[in-house]
């Protein structure tokens, strides 16, 4: 079990692209999203797959911390599990950009239903860790439920 | 992925106990039970744990077939995941009794919320495979939604 602390921002412009260290395609969907846990299946570069259980973020001023359990699963299983999804398949390319201090920006460029949306996330050691925001970082949406993966998967 | 065909019966009396080959304690709960899939965490003899994704049985005359994906997970993860459950923790001792023809009866003796309930299940190669029913087998409840693990977990 790991505790995950992350902040999320809208991205403005394309200047971040020159700093990309690596990228991968992600297709994912939720098998469940009610109750206390979200259950997500994710296929990476159509080569490998992961099943993830995430506790729902607690309601409150800063909904930043939650528990996460993640397991590798066979690609064939994952493809079949996508058929058991609730809501949409999210299709995006995730770009990694070094953020300094050993941190990494994950910049997700969405395709399909969410074409045009670009989000940047950074995982931190604590909710109040200082972060230097590059010029391409736009409005913070960490606490905006419309930009959660779960909400995007519902097509809302 | 495996396709699971099973029939379920109420158990009458204790005469089956002399034929028990092995038994194990099972504690389990559902993380999710809506949509097209049930997500179950199961702890066996407090020694090992499994995470299982089952597609919901199709509505129809015989709701016997469904897909199942199962993964070993760390015991510590499983115990934490029980806290993310929806509904009750099911606590039961599962007894295995040889059924002939290479098949096995699984006889679940429930504790806690369902104290007094005893169910026998048998997994078959096809929905119309013949089964010899021992004298301790009572009413068939395969298609009775009240005896599904999901319904029992809801306390209904």
TrEMBL record, chains A, B:
Database matches in SUPFAM superfamilies:
CYTH-like phosphatases
Q: Which residues form the active site?
A: 30
Residue ranges of the CYTH domain?
A: 2-154
A Pfam family recorded for this sequence: CYTH
Put simply, this protein is called CYTH domain-containing protein
Query: What organism is the protein native to?
Result: Novosphingobium pentaromativorans US6-1
């Amino acid at each position: 079990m790991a505790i995950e602390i992350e902040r999320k921002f809208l991205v403005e412009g394309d200047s971040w692209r020159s700093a990309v260290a690596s990228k991968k395609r992600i297709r994912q969907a939720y098998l469940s999203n009610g109750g206390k846990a979200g259950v997500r299946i994710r296929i990476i570069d159509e080569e490998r797959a992961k099943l993830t259980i995430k506790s729902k973020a607690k309601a409150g001023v800063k909904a930043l911390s939650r528990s996460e359990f993640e397991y590798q699963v066979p690609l064939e299983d994952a493809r079949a599990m996508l058929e058991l999804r609730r809501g949409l398949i999210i299709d995006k390319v995730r770009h990694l950009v070094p953020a300094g201090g050993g941190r990494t920006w994950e910049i997700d460029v969405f395709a399909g239903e969410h074409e045009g949306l670009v989000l940047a996330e950074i995982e931190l050691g604590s909710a109040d860790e200082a972060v230097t925001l590059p010029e391409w970082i736009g409005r913070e949406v960490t606490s905006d439920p419309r930009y959660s993966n779960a909400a995007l998967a519902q097509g809302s």
